[in-house]
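Structure first, sequence second, as always.
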């Protein structure tokens, strides 16, 4: 079997495993602390009738995916591809019961956005990222996938990728458990959040978890590779029928300065928040969706640069693009009316 056929078989195995329907169990914890055993449904991390509907054209949005060559094999190049709203930002993580009552308040059409809504947004994103990373680990443990990786000379890079993915899973599990303790009202975990009230909808929406490398003044906050790191989540779209951008995190890792990541958001110029969020959409998120006409209308060289940022930016290592993320593209002229930053109460003296 030649190299192209082996690559095609490998990609076919991975795609089949990703899209294979299986009896996934709900990842939520019941009120009594037990694990839910009901079957999961495919539900939207970004609300179909909210952030996705706000940018959809004829029921479709753009997302960024790796382009295929003439043999149908994915390459390192990326491209914008159309995706229907039914398939955009879905994962089989929660049963119908938990999906309904857990997130009902955040997804209702109107009302004041409460801190509890931001906690739920963060929790759902953490669960999505954990599900996807555990799934990819299982895929790369398939015997034939291992064999093809060795035959194609990919064993070393796959091992490095899986090592980073397993480290991420450790933190995501830690975050998920801490969120569930917080949601059960058993303690006041060190929860941070921010919410930018946008003046209008952005031409994109996304939801993702990431390990913050820098704060917004450009200071490195990511611990050395030998130490544990923490995760933050970001949601950009609509909450209670309002266009918002929100960051969330539980500060439960000793040497990762999550506090600085949030406090430094106070220095961000509200009139340029749209450009900053565009950078997050391509540098930090693989779960980003864009308005088709907006992408088609931007300059080709800028569109290509966004694709290259996406390719290099995820899963991400400290780089200068991210260090100066608040001083880049100004092509999205959407401002925020205000920002509110939530910090945990200080420990008593």
């Amino acid at each position: 079997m030649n190299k192209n056929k082996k690559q095609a078989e490998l990609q076919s195995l991975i795609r089949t495993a990703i899209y294979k329907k299986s009896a996934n169990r709900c990842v939520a914890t019941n009120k009594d602390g037990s694990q839910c055993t009901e079957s999961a449904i495919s539900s939207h991390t970004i609300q179909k009738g909210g952030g996705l509907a706000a940018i959809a054209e004829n029921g479709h949005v753009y997302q960024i995916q790796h382009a295929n060559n003439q043999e149908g094999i994915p390459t390192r190049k990326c491209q914008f591809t159309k995706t229907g709203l039914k398939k955009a930002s879905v994962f089989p993580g929660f049963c119908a019961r938990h999906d309904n009552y857990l997130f009902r308040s955040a997804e209702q059409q109107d009302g004041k956005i409460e801190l509890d809504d931001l906690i739920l947004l963060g929790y759902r994103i953490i669960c999505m990222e954990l599900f996807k990373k555990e799934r990819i680990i299982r895929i790369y443990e398939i015997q034939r996938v291992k064999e093809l990786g060795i035959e194609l000379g990919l064993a070393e890079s796959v091992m490095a990728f899986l090592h980073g993915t397993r480290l991420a899973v450790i933190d995501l599990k830690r975050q998920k458990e801490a969120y569930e303790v917080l949601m059960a009202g058993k303690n006041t975990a060190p929860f941070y959040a921010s919410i930018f009230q946008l003046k209008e909808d952005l031409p994109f929406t996304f939801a993702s978890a990431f390990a913050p490398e820098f704060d917004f003044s450009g200071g490195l906050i990511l611990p050395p590779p030998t130490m544990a790191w923490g995760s933050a989540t970001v949601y950009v779209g609509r909450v209670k029928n309002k266009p918002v951008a929100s960051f969330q995190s539980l500060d439960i890792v000793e040497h990762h300065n999550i506090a600085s990541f949030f406090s430094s958001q106070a220095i961000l110029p509200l009139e340029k928040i749209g450009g900053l969020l565009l950078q997050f959409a391509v540098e930090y998120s693989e779960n980003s969706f864009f308005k088709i006409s907006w992408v088609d209308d931007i300059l080709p060289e800028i569109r290509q640069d966004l694709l290259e940022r996406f390719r290099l930016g995820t899963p991400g290592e400290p780089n200068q693009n991210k260090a100066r993320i608040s001083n880049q593209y100004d092509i999205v002229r959407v401002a925020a009316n205000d920002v509110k930053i939530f910090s945990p109460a200080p420990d008593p003296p």
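Margin note: Strands lie at 41-44, 60-68, 74-84, 90-94, 191-198, 204-210, 232-239, 242-250, 288-290, 336-342.
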